[in-house]
Amino acid sequence: QVQLVESGGGLVQPGGSLRLSCVASGFTFTSFRMNWYRQAPGKERELVASIVSAGDRTDYADTVKGRFTISRDDAKNTVYLQMNNLKSEDTAVYYCNAYYKGWGPPTQYWGQGTQVTVSS
């Protein structure tokens, strides 16, 4: 069955770094755009970073541009989010998302989320 399993979250001090990983299985990873979303308490889920299926284009929310880097390793069916210079406002549950849009309605899958807490 389809699975997206995130890891790498935790507690980090402001200015620190974390790398999130998301291992995919049960679908054709190379056909999907991969995204990282986050949701802070009391806020809506927001798109943080995105990488196209070919891996040659990435997009970032303005709030993380220059600090976060998304990448993918198709040989490992894994997408990463390198987060540097973390700030308290980056505290949230981070979700991996796989998205495919062909001729029909879009197909997407979600991971269970991993908590990132930035605090001194």
Task: Please name the defining characteristics of this protein.
4-stranded antiparallel beta sheet, globular, about 120 residues, single chain, mainly beta, 7-stranded mixed beta sheet
Strand coverage percent: over 45%
- Fraction of helical residues: under 10%
> Mind telling me the C-alpha Rg?
14 Å
Q: Tell me the total number of β-strands.
A: 11
Count, helices: 0
Mean pLDDT: 97
Query: Can you tell me the overall shape?
Result: globular
Structural class: mainly beta
Largest sheet: 7 strands, mixed
Please mark out the parts with pLDDT under 50 across 5 or more consecutive residues, or reply none: none
Q: Give the SSE string.
A: EEEEEEEEEEE
| N→C terminal distance | 40 Å
Give me the secondary-structure topology:
Blueprint: E1 3-7, E2 10-12, E3 18-25, E4 33-39, E5 46-51, E6 58-60, E7 68-73, E8 78-83, E9 92-100, E10 107-110, E11 114-118
Parallel strand pairs: 2-11
Antiparallel strand pairs: 1-3, 3-8, 4-5, 4-9, 5-6, 7-8, 9-10, 9-11
Summarize the structure.
By secondary structure, the chain is mostly beta strands. 0% of the residues lie in helices and 52% in strands. It has no helices and 11 strands.
Could you please describe the fold and organization of this structure?
This protein is mainly beta. Helices cover 0% and strands 52% of the residues. It has no helices and eleven strands. The chain has strands at residues 3-7, 10-12, 18-25, 33-39, 46-51, 58-60, 68-73, 78-83, 92-100, 107-110, 114-118. Strands 2, 4, 5, 6, 9, 10 and 11 form a seven-stranded mixed beta sheet that branches. The protein has a four-stranded antiparallel beta sheet with strand order 1-3-8-7, with no helix packed on it. A hairpin with a 4-residue loop joins strand 7 and strand 8 (78-83). The radius of gyration is 14 Å and the shape is globular. 30% of the residues are buried.
